[in-house]
Amino acid sequence: MKPDLLRMKEVALIYLDRSGGLQKFVNACKLYNDSKQSYAIFRFPILINPSDIIELDATLGNYILHKPVKATQIFQSVCFTAVKTLSLIQQLQTEAQMSIVLKLTHLPSLPSYIFSLCKFPFDYTSQRFYMAEGIVVAMSTVTKYTQGARFVCCDENCAFSEGFQYIRVHTPGATESATVRNNFVCTLCTSPLREDMKYRVLGDKQIIEIVDAKAISAFQGFSSSKTPFRFQSFTVFLRDELTNKMEIGNRYKVIGIPVCMPSCIQITLCLEANSIHLCNLTGPSQISEKFKYLLSLTSKSCWRFTALLANSFASQVLPPGINNTLKLVIFALFFNKQILSPFCRMTVYTLYLALCKEQCCYCNCSNFLFCF
Ligand SMILES: [Zn+2]
């Protein structure tokens, strides 16, 4: 074994021990061992803090951030040795049966880790982690996908016609056919492999559409009533414990591995999520003096400031049709507060009717709400 690889395995074990991950792993093994069910695949999500790993060993830290598949193999080997040494799971036979999923707590706050669709050329073939920030605009229902499957050699005389040598598990970005299909061959005798269906493991999958947060900022205030438009979104795949963790309209930071998915004649760039974090946005830190002055001028009325803002800015930021509804709501507030005399109410009602025609009945201007 290369000294580097041995060193990285040592560090992985030290990290697991110090972070409490080893104890969680042992507990998870106990659950598998106590179960009466027979398993082909044993899945273990492991929480990884890249900063802590980099402090222990820069090479392993670099593997986790830039070569996650190889890093996963290192943890898989360490965990398999632990299971065998401590006799944690009696059923477990081969290392291939260990499905280790590294879950990252965060990524370094550096531009090279930001998933940006504005940057050219795209270099998202390296299968490493990026962080995207965006708002969820659509989501699918939760469906099933093949998390793992067991294959055996068709030739009964071959040593691999039984046992757990051929275990295939889903890796980030892989399609269903990469995990299960019917043209795999035995590496020992080149006979075709067949799937042992009773060991197939299904997981949950959900597809999310996200609009980049920067696109929202760029188009803030833009309104076009004539030409309907939609923001360009990109697809995020959520699997297993991440499904149903996102809500439409919320803003999230998603750590994941970019995937190029072939669709018809095009290649679509997607992101397979590794971890998601809800963004808690605070309002603007400073409000301009003019705005504060406006608020003080209108403070005698409970509705005037809001109405003024709605009249000035709502048409630019609201989708077509909503602006009129907003103005109607403000009218409705008039009535409820009973701040108007019966005569004025009649006037407002006349204006209300005019609003339905989108025109002021007094002077034909479009700002009839503030005309009187
Ligand atoms: Zn064979």
Structure description:
- The protein has 372 residues and is of the alpha+beta class.
- Among the domains are: 1-105, mini-chromosome maintenance (MCM) complex, chain A, domain 1; 299-370, no CATH class.
- Helices cover 35% and strands 23% of the residues.
- It contains 11 helices and 10 strands.
- Helix 1 (3-19) packs across helix 5 and helix 3 runs antiparallel to helix 4 (58-66).
- The chain is elongated and about 95 Å long.
- The protein starts with a helix and ends in a 16-residue tail after the last helix.
- Zinc ion is lined by residues 153, 155, 158, 160, 186, 188-189, 191.
- GO terms for molecular function: ATP binding; DNA binding; single-stranded DNA helicase activity.
Provide a brief overview of the structure.
With 372 residues, the chain is of the alpha+beta class. Helix content is 35%, strand content 23%.
Question: What tags apply to this protein structure?
Answer:
372 residues; alpha+beta; 5-stranded mixed beta barrel; elongated; disordered C terminus; binds zinc ion; NA-bd_OB-fold; DNA binding
